[in-house]
């Protein structure tokens, strides 16, 4: 097939935000996932206060564990464990999040808030154990005094085990109160104490994402408004952050996760820091005064929206305000005096109907009045082809909205058919944020959905349409991002992990090929004078990289025949005689990566020869190819 690229006729700039990340604490994405805390229910605030803990004593009856509540004194973290021991020993064992992933020769950092009772001399023997219950590392902590104080101690693990556990044994005579019992590995991302799991962040960093959307998803909304995401409760000292039940706690019967809570160790400060580390624009999505419409549909009356709006304004101050402002000072106190340079704020996740639009109008007006340069992102509901979607778009166009967030969890076929979706979008209307999308191999939210090659290749085909329409589409993100293999509620997901290992799915590598080869300007790429949108299974787009002076071709062959394409690049004097070819291919639509073979299907790079201004690219059956050639 003869294809033509018009390298001197750019259609539009590809925004640096084009390929980003959607983060939500679903599938143990944060607690039990990227947030490296190993102790589950460290502050006894779960619905069942000792969930995750078992107690044992010797001799039997020698002591007791009672959960006390000091709600009046400390409403954010009211419960603590009151321990009594009369001469023997009492142990509390924490099971971790489906076990604790521990590594040989790695340092582990234990901490606890504690106070002795008068006349008491209890010590804590802290032991890391393997799955068999054998001690693989230990230390002892002896709290002093009757005031609450944080104690820390470190030790090494002598073994690697995906199912470790932490035992804390109280020895001696007396009584003691403990809270915030915590254990972190010493290999967190950038070695930050209390930080993030480095292998998972590295997978994100490798994507070189343009933005980081957080904290969701449905958890922005909550089942009801009392458990909506409130950023102010997620900043400041960790022991003062108020934990809430996760929106995905036991949501789907096929994967019960009654132990799913949000401790907010990964809170808004950490999200901003992560965005900065990744070189990604932070994109917080804020509650718009509505709970999840799939659940209660609870809304705040229009005349009581002020606190919700104030939360958005204060967040902008937290991110960008100088250190003399109330919220800017908090950011500085937390360790980041320089502003985070927030540019975008989303209002509402998947909301629809008149209730959403009338609320959005009020938010947008207030945000723009105080921060005219902040770009406000609006939603369009979860049904991309339905009446609600059309209504939202109609209203948002009238309002001249800036960016509209569209979500689609659809079949692979839908993705292939929708490579032309944005060809007809109004170039002068609102920009599009494809904020959540993923091909579903069975059906939306089916537990049987797979991260297979059919889905990933269909997404690659669809994404040619995103890029070709960069004039309209300015931000895109696959969703959901993370899933723990033993604690998920939703599939497919971009990155899967267990307590020690992690892997990018085939969908991850498609995203990576796009984001690592985005380019700066989209140029026409034609077959018989037309955009290449699925003719005999061929999808393609072309871009220019202004920094490296390269032409970038992206070619997707969804057919099961190999194809020889002859790409003539017009508008250049000559191309370099060699370029780079990056190919992803699988022989079966069902092919997938696994934790045992994490890169089985991943991009393979080779040299491609170029003659004059022509590149001959052989596209393997069911393959995605990127070619980069210098002009
Ligand atoms: O990504 C999973 C969920 O899908 C998100 O929380 C929600 O926005 C969408 O319905």
From TrEMBL:
<keyword id="KW-0732">Signal</keyword>
<keyword id="KW-0378">Hydrolase</keyword>
<dbReference type="InterPro" id="IPR008979">
    <property type="entry name" value="Galactose-bd-like_sf"/>
</dbReference>
<dbReference type="InterPro" id="IPR003305">
    <property type="entry name" value="CenC_carb-bd"/>
</dbReference>
<dbReference type="Pfam" id="PF02018">
    <property type="entry name" value="CBM_4_9"/>
</dbReference>
<feature type="domain" description="Alpha-L-arabinofuranosidase C-terminal">
    <location>
        <begin position="435"/>
        <end position="623"/>
    </location>
</feature>
<dbReference type="GO" id="GO:0046556">
    <property type="term" value="F:alpha-L-arabinofuranosidase activity"/>
</dbReference>
<dbReference type="Pfam" id="PF06964">
    <property type="entry name" value="Alpha-L-AF_C"/>
</dbReference>
<dbReference type="InterPro" id="IPR017853">
    <property type="entry name" value="GH"/>
</dbReference>
<protein>
    <recommendedName>
        <fullName>non-reducing end alpha-L-arabinofuranosidase</fullName>
        <ecNumber>3.2.1.55</ecNumber>
    </recommendedName>
</protein>
<dbReference type="Pfam" id="PF22848">
    <property type="entry name" value="ASD1_dom"/>
</dbReference>
<dbReference type="InterPro" id="IPR051563">
    <property type="entry name" value="Glycosyl_Hydrolase_51"/>
</dbReference>
<dbReference type="InterPro" id="IPR010720">
    <property type="entry name" value="Alpha-L-AF_C"/>
</dbReference>
<keyword id="KW-0325">Glycoprotein</keyword>
<dbReference type="GO" id="GO:0046373">
    <property type="term" value="P:L-arabinose metabolic process"/>
</dbReference>
<dbReference type="InterPro" id="IPR013780">
    <property type="entry name" value="Glyco_hydro_b"/>
</dbReference>
<dbReference type="InterPro" id="IPR055235">
    <property type="entry name" value="ASD1_cat"/>
</dbReference>
<comment type="similarity">
    <text>Belongs to the glycosyl hydrolase 51 family.</text>
</comment>
């Amino acid at each position: 097939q003869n294809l033509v690229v018009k390298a001197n006729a750019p259609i539009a700039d590809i925004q640096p935000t084009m390929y980003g990340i959607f983060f939500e604490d679903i599938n143990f994405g944060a607690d039990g996932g990227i947030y490296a805390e190993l102790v589950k229910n460290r502050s006894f605030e779960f619905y069942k206060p000792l969930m995750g803990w078992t107690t044992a004593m010797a001799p039997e009856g020698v002591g007791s564990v009672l959960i006390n509540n000091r709600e009046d004194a400390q409403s954010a973290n009211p419960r603590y464990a009151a321990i009594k021991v009369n001469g023997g020993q009492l142990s509390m064992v924490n099971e971790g999040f489906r076990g604790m992933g521990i590594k040989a020769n790695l340092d582990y950092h234990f901490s606890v808030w504690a106070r002795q009772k008068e006349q008491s001399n209890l010590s804590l023997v802290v032991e890391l154990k393997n799955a068999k219950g054998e001690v693989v590392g230990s230390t002892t902590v002896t709290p002093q005094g009757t005031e609450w104080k944080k104690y820390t101690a470190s030790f090494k693990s002598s073994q690697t085990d995906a199912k470790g556990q932490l035992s804390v044994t109280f020895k001696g005579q007396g009584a003691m109160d403990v809270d915030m019992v915590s254990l972190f590995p010493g290999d967190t991302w950038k070695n930050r104490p209390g930080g993030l799991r480095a292998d998972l962040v590295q997978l994100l960093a490798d994507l070189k994402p343009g933005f980081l959307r957080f904290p969701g998803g449905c958890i922005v909304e909550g089942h009801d408004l009392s458990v909506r995401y409130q950023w102010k409760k997620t900043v400041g000292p960790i022991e003062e952050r108020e934990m809430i039940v996760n929106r995905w706690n036991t949501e789907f019967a096929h994967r019960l996760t009654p132990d799913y809570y949000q401790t907010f160790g990964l809170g808004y400060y950490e999200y901003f820091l992560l965005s900065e580390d990744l070189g990604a624009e932070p994109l917080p999505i804020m509650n718009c005064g509505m709970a999840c419409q799939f659940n209660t549909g609870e809304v705040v009356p229009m005349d009581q929206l002020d606190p919700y709006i104030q939360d958005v304004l204060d967040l902008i101050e937290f991110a960008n305000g100088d250190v003399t402002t109330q919220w800017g000072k908090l950011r500085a106190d937390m360790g980041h005096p320089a502003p985070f340079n927030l540019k975008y704020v989303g209002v509402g996740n998947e909301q629809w109907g008149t209730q959403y639009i009338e609320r959005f109008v009020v938010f947008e007006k207030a945000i723009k009045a105080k921060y005219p340069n902040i770009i406000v992102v609006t939603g369009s509901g979860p049904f991309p082809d339905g009446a609600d979607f059309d209504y939202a778009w109609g209203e948002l166009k009238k309002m001249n909205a800036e960016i509209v967030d569209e979500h689609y969890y659809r079949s692979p076929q839908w993705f292939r058919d929708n490579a032309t979706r944005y060809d007809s979008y109004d170039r002068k209307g609102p920009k599009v944020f494809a904020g959540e999308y993923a091909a579903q191999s069975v059906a939306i939210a089916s537990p049987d959905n797979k991260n297979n090659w059919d889905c990933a290749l269909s997404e690659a085909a669809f994404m040619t349409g995103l890029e070709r329409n960069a004039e309209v589409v300015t931000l895109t993100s696959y969703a959901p991002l993370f899933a723990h293999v033993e604690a998920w509620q939703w599939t497919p997901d971009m990155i899967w992990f267990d307590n020690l290992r992690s892997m990018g799915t085939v969908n991850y590598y498609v995203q990576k090929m796009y984001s690592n080869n985005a380019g700066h300007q989209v140029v026409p790429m034609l077959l018989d004078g037309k955009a290449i949108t699925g003719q005999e299974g061929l999808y393609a787009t072309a871009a220019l990289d202004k920094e490296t002076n390269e032409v970038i071709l992206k070619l997707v062959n969804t057919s099961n025949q190999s194809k020889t394409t002859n790409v003539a690049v017009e508008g250049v004097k000559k191309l370099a005689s060699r370029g780079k070819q990056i190919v992803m291919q699988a022989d079966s639509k069902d092919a997938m990566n696994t934790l045992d073979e994490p890169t089985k299907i991943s991009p393979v790079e080779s040299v491609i020869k170029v003659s004059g201004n022509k590149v001959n690219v052989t596209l393997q059956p069911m393959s995605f190819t990127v070619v980069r050639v210098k002009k």
